[in-house]
Amino acid sequence: MTNVTAAIAQEEQILFEQTKRKQRYRQFIKGVLFLLPSIVLFSVFLFYPLLRTIYLSFFLTDASGATTVFVGWDNFVTLFQSTIFQQSVKSTFLFVLYTVPLTIIVSLFLAVIANEKLKGIGFFRTIFSSTMGISVAAASVFWLYLFHPTIGFLNIIMEVFGLEKIGWLTDPSWALIAVSATTIWMNIGFTFLILLGGLQSIDKYLYESADVDGAGYFYKLRRITIPMLSPTLFFVVTVTIINAFQTFGQVDILTQGGPQNATNLIVYSIYREAFTNYQFGSASAQAIILFIIILFMTIIQFKLGERKVHYQ
Amino acid sequence: MKRMLLLFVMFSLAILIAACGSSDAEGSGATETEDGKQIVTFWHAMGGAAQEALDEIVASYNASQDEVEVRAEFQGTYDEALTKFHSVAGTDSAPTMIQVFEIGTMSMVNSGHIEPIQKFIDEDGYDMGHLEENIVNYYKIDDQFYSMPFNSSTPVMFYNKDAFEAAGLDPENPPQTYEEVEAASQAIVESNPDIKGFALQAYGWLFEQLLASQGALLLNEDNGRSGTATEIGFTEEQGKSIFEWVERMNEAGTFANYGTNGDNMLAGFLAEDVAMFLQSSANSRDLIDNAPFEVGVAFLPHPENTDWEGVVIGGASLWMSAGKDEAEQKAAWDFMKYLQSPEIQAQWHTDTGYFAINPAAYEEDLAIEMHEEKPQLKVTVEQLQATTPSYATQGAVMDMIPEERKIIETALEAVFNGGDVDEAYRTAVEQLNTAIETANKARGE
């Protein structure tokens, strides 16, 4: 008797396991199906190009990008020895250093003042975020005229104040700063909007109870606003850094990588190597290096960020 | 549940098919118009005033007959147009014909996606002999014409005649050597401190031209025409002469630095910030019409201790895509011939400042009238005719020339900004030789 019940229980157990497995299997299929569209799109537009880039980086190519000679790690070795590429990496890091902190500080300042409930604040919010609606090309052309050596507005102002004219885009010590200024101006709109959104979603009770406790404006800013904004800030920092590494349009229109390669940022250098020099192999090698740099930067950020970011 | 899944799969598939399908639909664009005209797509790189002039010519061709319709499409700069062509070459999206600048010649020949126009010349019994001799020299490679010459220009020196007069210089007798340019710059700056004497755009093409004008070769193996070039062809003295010329003017404070930006330089010239500069003669008409002062055009200068040898033909030619229908290619060929005709060349020459590649154009009434009215347009023609045919003035052919230009531009910029000439020159030469080596290696030779 007991044997029978045990056998039945065992059978039930097996059946249960089977059903469970079957169900889990169906769940898995369902999950894959839901992921399918993005898997397909990612494969076509990301994974395949990535693999192809890795493949190309080991070859020399002809003008149409077809591989001709296998050279192994030669492309990478040449790159690390090339003064042009070293300059390009240096400029890129400098560019990140110039643009990221300033963009965030300026946008944060604008977001904090635009977060006040004042009459007509909507007008200022629109103005502050307006650069988001301007394309990179249009903004660059606009700045190109401001930077013009003789008829540009900036040099006219310099003259009015009796200062020496600056070759904004022709002097290697100024060009990167000029491109950075353009980039900061262009990025403010987007960063401002995200930060303002973050500020708006902070719970009003926190401020109310702080008020009751008699906290001052700056105390609230330091102890409530910034910590509560940290997830948004973290997002903005990550995105701005990645954008800075991938800057292309401004450089192409303002300086074409010149003067003396001072603004030849990595992405522009990749473009030039591939599409004016037709060295797709060496361009791919540069792209791989850029990929690794960004990957590491992002990992470091997440490691550091996790400790500092305060999620509600 | 199952139906949901099924729907989902169908949906994903639909997206996939749509994504893949759309490119097909685009590619197989009609090759005929609704009323049965053969369509010829023509990619070009003529912006601004030249684009207007070109559009006018295309419209006149379309109106002149009712079998072919040419559709001219602007594709950005020469570099950009060439890059686009290389990425679509051999597919249905490729244009019937494309305009490619002279230094793209080797990369087009090597691409394998073009139909040498020699084929049509032979079939048609067309005589290329009526074209300008120097052009025939440039575009004939191994006794074959790969492309049809179209717009050709030479570099000239533009100068501000009013500024010359104010400085007590003879506006009808422009400087011809580096040393004379320096002296004139000095005189102009002394008479008016608000205006600089001379500007040189950091542009590899101008460097090549300044080499040719003193009879120097850019690449060895006779500029790559007797064999594959293996290193640079100019001597240290020849190469440095240009760098040192700029350095001397820079130190004297008579040099205006516009970097690599040609448009800024044109604007600076028109705003009377600089009195002399070098640029393609293709800008002649635009400058003459828009300058608030009298514009002079002069030959390209050369160092005093060398003889003036001439200039290399700059500009572009027209290429035929391979793999198009015979009818489509024939139609494009007909349009190419139309562009060579004296009337059209006269119109093109006087509208832009490119010289007429068919010398018969200068006998046309339009050209004669314009030459009387604007004698500056004649300078480019005279300069070309005064050029001594040699390997130096035939110009270099190699596929790494775009890279060579970037390297030279960087070196020139270093000198413009007060950098050391020896160092800039040495780095440039090293990079040039490496680039030549890599290019040869990449071809698998």
Strand order of the largest sheet of chain A: 1-2
Structural class of chain B: alpha/beta
- Oligomer, anyone? heterodimer
Q: CATH fold name of the largest domain in chain A, please?
A: MetI-like fold
CATH class of the largest domain in chain A: Mainly Alpha
- What is the 3D shape of chain B? globular
Instruction: Kindly report the average pLDDT value of chain A.
Output: 89
Q: Domain count of chain B, please report it.
A: 2
The CATH topology of the largest domain in chain B is given as D-Maltodextrin-Binding Protein, domain 2
Low-confidence stretches of chain A: none
Strand content of chain A: under 5%
Largest sheet of chain A: 2 strands, antiparallel
Mean pLDDT of chain B: 87
Count of separate DSSP helical elements of chain A: 12
The amount of helix of chain A comes to over 70%
Task: Supply the key terms.
heterodimer, A: 312 residues, mainly alpha, MetI-like fold, 2 domains, two-stranded antiparallel sheet, 2 strands, flat, B: 445 residues, alpha/beta, D-Maltodextrin-Binding Protein, domain 2, six-stranded mixed sheet, five-stranded mixed sheet, 20 helices, 14% strand
Please provide a written account of the structure.
The complex is a heterodimer of chains A (about 300) and B (about 450). Chain A is an all-alpha fold and about 300 residues long. Chain A has 2 domains: about 55 residues; about 230 residues, Orthogonal Bundle (MetI-like fold). Chain A has a two-stranded antiparallel sheet. In chain A, helix 11 runs antiparallel to helix 12. Chain A starts with a helix and ends with a helix. In chain B, the strands form 3 sheets. In chain B, strands 1, 2, 3, 4, 7 and 13 form a 6-stranded mixed sheet that branches. Chain B has a 5-stranded mixed sheet with strand order 10-9-11-8-12. With about 450 residues, chain B is of the alpha/beta class. About 0% of the residues of chain B have low confidence. Chain B contains 20 helices and 13 strands. Chain B has 2 domains: about 160 residues, Periplasmic binding protein-like II (D-Maltodextrin-Binding Protein, domain 2, 3-Layer(aba) Sandwich), CATH 3.40.190.10; about 210 residues, Periplasmic binding protein-like II (D-Maltodextrin-Binding Protein, domain 2, 3-Layer(aba) Sandwich), CATH 3.40.190.10. At the A-B interface, helix 1 of A face helix 1, helix 3, helix 4, helix 12 and helix 19 of B.
